[in-house]
Amino acid sequence: xxxxxxxxxxxxxxxxxxxxxxxxxxxxxxxxxxxxxxxxxxxxxxxxxxxxxxxxxxxxxxxxxxxxxxxxxxxxxxxxxxxxxxxxxxxxxxxxxxxxxxxxxxxxxxxxxxxxxxxxxxxxxxxxxxxxxxxxxxxxxxxxxxxxxxxxxxxxxxxxxxxxxxxxxxxxxxxxxxxxxxxxxxxxxxxxxxxxxxxxxxxxxxxxxxxxxxxxxxxxxxxxxxxxxxxxxxxxxxxxxxxxxxxxxxxxxxxxxxxxxxxxxxxxxxxxxxxxxxxxxxxxxxxxxxxxxxxxxxxxxxxxxxxxxxxxxxxxxxxxxxxxxxxxxxxxxxxxxxxxxxxxxxxxxxxxxxxxxxxxxxxxxxxxxxxxxxxxxxxxxxxxxxxxxxxxxxxxxxxxxxxxxxxxxxxxxxxxxxxxxxxxxxxxxxxxxxxxxxxxxxxxxxxxxxxxxxxxxxxxxxxxxxxxxxxxxxxxxxxxxxxxxxxxxxxxxxxxxxxxxxxxxxxxxxxxxxxxxxxxxxxxxxxxxxxxxxxxxxxxxxxxxxxxxxxxxxxxxxxxxxxxxxxxxxxxxxxxxxxxxxxxxxxxxxxxxxxxxxxxxxxxxxxxxxxxxxxxxxxxxxxxxxxxxxxxxxxxxxxxxxxxxxxxxxxxxxxxxxxxxxxxxxxxxxxxxxxxxxxxxxxxxxxxxxxxxxxxxxxxxxxxxxxxxxxxxxxxxxxxxxxxxxxxxxxxxxx
Length: 735
Prior knowledge:
Number of domains: 4
CATH topology of the largest domain: Dimethylsulfoxide Reductase, domain 2
Structural class: alpha/beta
Low-confidence stretches: 1-38
Distance between the termini: 55 Å
CATH architecture of the largest domain: 3-Layer(aba) Sandwich
CATH class of the largest domain: Alpha Beta
Strand order of the largest sheet: 1-6-5-16-15-14-7-8
């Protein structure tokens, strides 16, 4: 083993980065970051799919004279329709990130000190396997947990299940979409899938409640949003901030943060009282409409006005606007739904509002997604764990249908209901993804093994015992993408270029570790191509066609009720549940009820956060192409508030939260596009990992300021819009 005094990274010229961004001047020389034995001549293309976010858009990668050149959309792909978002086209920069992890590392000093020893892959895998076996003998295999984000974690899930642990989780449930999915399941018996089953392109009225289409850049939805706007759809936007989507709206409602449920209840009150709902649809498919109607009767627009700040006349006008276009009225379910602690009930209210419009199963509303039938590769059955999952003891959160990340974290801290002593963390920076980073640090300090698999040296990697460098998505095979969508398809991710150093694909790591653990029977195939081609061949499709085109599309099928899709609702009653008996039996409100959110300390602002269209979470800030477009975040402050305090756009400030945590310095953006009672910042900046040299210290981290969270009582989601900050000037940047 050799000790690293500092990292030895790829050397690439500035011209290479310019070429990667597809804006290099003609004739500039380009030096390659990819070593090749025989220099290729000419251009070649490789079909694959993107990994910059979870949308997994089909892409075509271009290689020119042996060097990665650019990535563009695959015209055969129904997700991308031949067009990638800014993140997708800039994803090529991940290959040229000079701070990439390049070889396996084992921790040299205490956790968090970021000192490493470079080792061989065999040494790293042996180290991990020995410690896993020790945990298994002392505590049982269930005491090893996996946190994973994205399709690349599937093979690690396979290995952990084969080892005998059920404790596998992703932040996408408890920190993102979980409340939304639970709210829709409680109403329709099904959630809204991912990608969402929303027929935006055919919607005649689209309602966005805190859903930032165009900033939260989900490619298909943004394209369909543009189509809807171009077709003259009526857009209604509810948001404390005048977002990009709000700029396209017929009606913009600048709601008081935390009062969205009050507005939705008032809308439903108007629609029911004025008999504007789809009465035939409700009578045919609904259950419990009369007690539902009685429950919402008190929630008039006049009642809602002091709660929300929205005039009664505007509430009535927008309710009538929705009813005018039903059933092609779509109240978008959103995605990042963990806001204030009542999130599953707020999402259920959104589902009920859609039910009143008759939009579920109807064109312009929600379609029934379809998928290809691709058999799994035959492997032995997993062992049956001797212990239940650790995250939700005694079913404290009775409607959680996926594993709760923060539940695993809590068990790691307390040792109850049983200890968690090993973490695998794949492609998710838990210090930025989970609320209250000090709780995450406390949990990590209780571990006997922490393994991080990533392409960059993120903050979570600094706490690991072992860091495994993964090949980026343009350098590896991954699991097939067999998506649930408006039409069936299967997509292939395959290598475009070789990894530049000693990085490995996730499938190789998971397979090698399984073999070290004596679980080789779960990986009876030699390599990823054999695994993938066997699955495709067994499905009756052409492996050669899939490699060439990157995608195979199936025959279109009915996706709406009037096309022949059965109107089935897998709820306890078999109906759309306006009144939920299962919620009532569990001790919860059977119809959503409004509870006023708690305020903050005097003089403070509610902290809101969101996405940039050119960055994904906290994963891309070191990408040289994407960082060149947006290299820091700013804090949005209402212009009148800024003027009263003497802050101007460009001034440096720090934010102090209600618990005394102070952010890195951040620039002010004084704007009329936000309410005076809140501030806003883009998530994912303010990195502290010292080896992320490009991103280090750029902007401020909202995650560090999110020290408090409210837990959704239905499903355990962590609401994070419950933090407040004050603003303190540090430097004046204006003249």
